[in-house]
Amino acid sequence: MEKFNEDKRSEDTNRFLRLLMKHEKRVYAFILSMVSNSNDADDIMQEVTTVMWKKFPNYKETMNFSSWAMTIAKYQVLSFYKKNKNRKVRFSSGLLELLEQDYCNAEPVDERTELLEVCLKELKTQDKDIIRLRYEDNLTLKSIGAKISKSTRATHYALARIHKLLMNCVRRKMAGQNEL
To answer: Which helix (H) or strand (E) holds 37?
Structure first.
């Protein structure tokens, strides 16, 4: 019985972490838009994550995780402003409700990110290398050009071509999903 409970807890932990990782950027962006100070937003995000974890046993699979998390974030932002009454920028709870609805109804960035990852895998090896050098290794166009034996200008054009390929790929895949 104890082994079963451990497996269940581990499964719940993994499920929570997967959902949190999928929606964390969106929740953080919502918080940051409310407090406009990254240090405050970081603190509030920690509180939101703690509250979400404590309330996760009550979370049902049929619920929209993003909406659930945004609601918790909204209340944590309100709590932050109650504790910090000396802050100049304050929002009414009605405005927070409207902003929460906007964030919940907005097209998920995560979906585009997932599609971008699929499109990246479809690139030719040389194009993948250029993307990796630019965005993982943070190299300049000049440095990339030296590594792939091309001029800075040619490297710029190659990167622009790859960006266009990726953008078109994501758009095609999103259109295909909407047709289903």
So the answer is: none
C-beta of residue 67 within 8 angstroms of C-beta of residue 76:
no
| Contacts with 52 (C-beta within 8 Å, 6 or more apart), sequence order | 16, 20, 68, 69, 72
pLDDT at 90 over 70: no
Dihedral of alpha carbons 120, 124, 129, 134, sign: negative
pLDDT tens digits along 134-180: 877 788 889 999 999 999 999 989 988 998 998 889 888 887 765 44
In this prediction the pTM is: 0.50
Supply 91's token pair: 């929002």
Burial per residue of 49-66, b for 16 or more beta-carbon CB atoms within 10 angstroms, e otherwise: bebbeeebeebeeeeebb
Which class for 116: exposed (0-12), middle (13-18), buried (19 or more C-beta within 10 A)? middle
Tokens of residue 49, six digits: 């994550």
DSSP-assigned letter for residue 57: G
